[in-house]
Structure formats: structure tokens, C-alpha cells
Write a structure and sequence with these properties.
Layout (H helix, E strand, L loop, with lengths): L17 H11 L4 H8 L5 H14 L4 H10 L3 H19 L9 H24 L5 H11 L7 H12 L4 H10 L8 H12 L10 H15 L4 H12 L2 H15 L11 H14 L3 H10 L15 H11 L7
Length: 326
């Protein structure tokens, strides 16, 4: 499970935080104490808490037994949140990365069983910390894997928004839930991105919604038809001047104010979303400023859509003239 960057292969590494680094490494060795201490320190900072739980939830896949034991010992919101996030990550791993219509029955059964356990743990965390949006954010990802949504995604997303209107992972997850591979459409995803950025201030990491929506469009193309039709669809998509103009405008809004949100936990990931879009559409000169501001380590999404994330990230940096630079 370990990657060249020192963490689990599936974990996002677009951050620089010594405490989180130590907690992640300890958790992969099944020592949850540093992780729980780190989470306790984020109770008044939902944006950092969301990043911590995204990383530690993935790392916690290897320590599910220990996390279950800790959660049952004490009704502590951090313990239940960490357990729920680890179970949710395990459920996603069980499902795999293909479109849901091509996912095997065995994969779906594993996803549903683990997802059910994750939901119960996360709802316990939400009950123990009623003002915390992060359990609801993780639950949103669990709900995407449900056999029947029946309005649940809308309900959970509303719970997130009651507590935070700009929680980066929740907004990205909501966008993903609207894509065609989850029975939505590309237009729905794009409309959500446009609405979600309509009133954002310059520099806010959620400008990445625009680029992410169009990255999802490229992924959608790669999953349909034979090689020839995929090639022509992709060529048309990447040469669409309206798409390029929309992404460029959002990128400019993110880049125009590099200071206000410089310390936001999602800023590095946001820049990497734009970098990935420009890498795949072969515009290295536009990718470069985002790679310079996105840190030296890869986020999991969206790089993993286009190959092993560390390798793809390294290629993008090389093409942008940043190979070997940190």
C-alpha cells in the first residue's frame, strides 16, 4: 500500500503539514494516537479537519481493527470520524474506479457492506459533534455508492451546507456525484461548477470546480465507445474554445490573488486540478504557474484519472519545465 512519497498510494499528498505527516505515517503502522491528537486540534477549523480526515481516512484502511476498538471504548467524535472515514475509504477501494454500470456484483457487495458500517460510524460522529460539517462531507461520498439515492445525496449535501458553504472536499464530491458515471450528466456537473463559483472571491480554491467539471468531461469521453470514437470526441473536446476560455477565466481568478488563501488547506489541490487539465490538453505554459503553486507532491485526484498519480504528476512537471524543482 505504500507509495514512493511515504504514504498510501491512494492518499492525496498536496499539502505541507508536519503534524499530518507524522500522524499519517504512524497510522499506516496502526498507531492511531497521533492521528486522534491531530484531529482533536482541528475541531474549530473545518477546512483543515476535512484535509486531515481525507488523508487519515485513507491511511486508516490498514488499521480498521484498531480504529473499531478505539471507537467502541469511548464516545469521542474524533474516534468515530476517523473510523467512519477509514471504512468509507475501504468501501471506495472495494468498488474500484470504473463506471458503476461496469462494476462487478462482488465489488458492489463489498462496497455496500463497508459503506454501511461507514455510514453508522459517521452518523455517530455527527451526533457527537453537531456543528461539524466533516462527517457529513464524508457521508456524501458514501451516499454516492448507494444502490438507490432516493434524495439522500441532496439531504446530506444540505447538512454540509448548513454548517459550511465552501468546504472543498464536499463541493468536489457533490460535483462528482452529478457526472454521467454516477447517472448524472456532464451538463449537470458544469452547471454546478458555474453556480458554485458565481460569487467566489479571487484566489478561493473552489475556483477549481470549473476545471474539475471539465476534467470529468474528459474522463467521461475516455469511458465511452471504441478507440476511434474516443479519439475524435477527445479531439473535439480539447479544441473547444468555449471550454478553454471558461477554464482560463477560472484559472485567472485563482491566480490573481495568491495571498488571501495561501494557507487554505485546499489551495495546493486546487492548483493541481488546473495543472491536470492543462497537462492533458497539452498547454504546459498554462499548467506551469499552477504546478509552481501546487506543491511538489501530487494530489490523488484528478491525476489518478490519467495514470498512476505520481508518474503523471512528474510528467506534467517535466513538460512544464519544472522537473526536479521543488
Amino acid at each position: 500500500m505504500g507509495g514512493d512519497n511515504g504514504g498510501p498510494v491512494e492518499v492525496t499528498l498536496a499539502w505541507s503539514d508536519e503534524r499530518l505527516e507524522a500522524a499519517m505515517r504512524a497510522l499506516t503502522r496502526r498507531d492511531a494516537r497521533p492521528a486522534l491528537a491531530a484531529l482533536a486540534a482541528t475541531r474549530d477549523d473545518p477546512h483543515r479537519r476535512a484535509l486531515y480526515i481525507e488523508v487519515l481516512g485513507t491511511a486508516g484502511e490498514s488499521a480498521l481493527h484498531e480504529l473499531r476498538t478505539l471507537a467502541k471504548e469511548h464516545e469521542d467524535p474524533d474516534r468515530w470520524l476517523l473510523l467512519g472515514a477509514a471504512l468509507a475509504s475501504a468501501a471506495a477501494s472495494a468498488r474500484g474506479a470504473d463506471v458503476i454500470s461496469r462494476t462487478s456484483e462482488e465489488q458492489i457487495e463489498g462496497m455496500l457492506e463497508l459503506g454501511g458500517h461507514a455510514r453508522r460510524a459517521l452518523r455517530t460522529a455527527a451526533r457527537l459533534a453537531p456543528a461539524d460539517p466533516v462527517p457529513w462531507s464524508v457521508l456524501l461520498g458514501c451516499a454516492m455508492g448507494a444502490v438507490e439515492h432516493d434524495g439522500e445525496l441532496d439531504q446530506i449535501y444540505a447538512e454540509v451546507r448548513r454548517r459550511s458553504t465552501d468546504l472543498y472536499p464536499a463541493e468536489i464530491t457533490r460535483l462528482m456525484s452529478l457526472t454521467r458515471k454516477w447517472y448524472g450528466s456532464q451538463q449537470q456537473a458544469v452547471d454546478f461548477a458555474r453556480a458554485g463559483t458565481a460569487h467566489l472571491p479571487p484566489g478561493h480554491p473552489l475556483w477549481a470546480l470549473v476545471a474539475f467539471a471539465h476534467v470529468e468531461g474528459m474522463v467521461d469521453i475516455s469511458m465511452r465507445g471504441n478507440a476511434i470514437t474516443r479519439f475524435w470526441r477527445f479531439a473535439r473536446f480539447t479544441s473547444d474554445k468555449r471550454i478553454r476560455a471558461e477554464v482560463d477565466a477560472a484559472a485567472d481568478r485563482l491566480l490573481v490573488d495568491p495571498r488571501t488563501f495561501a494557507d487554505h488547506p485546499a489551495t495546493l489541490s486546487a492548483h493541481q486540478v488546473f495543472a491536470a487539465f492543462y497537462y492533458v490538453t497539452s498547454v504546459p505554459e498554462r499548467a506551469r504557474p499552477h504546478l509552481e503553486r501546487g506543491g511538489p507532491r501530487p494530489a490523488y485526484l484528478p491525476w489518478v484519472y490519467f495514470g498512476e498519480q505520481a508518474e503523471t504528476f512528474a510528467l506534467a512537471r517535466k513538460e512544464a519545465g519544472l522537473a526536479g524543482r521543488t
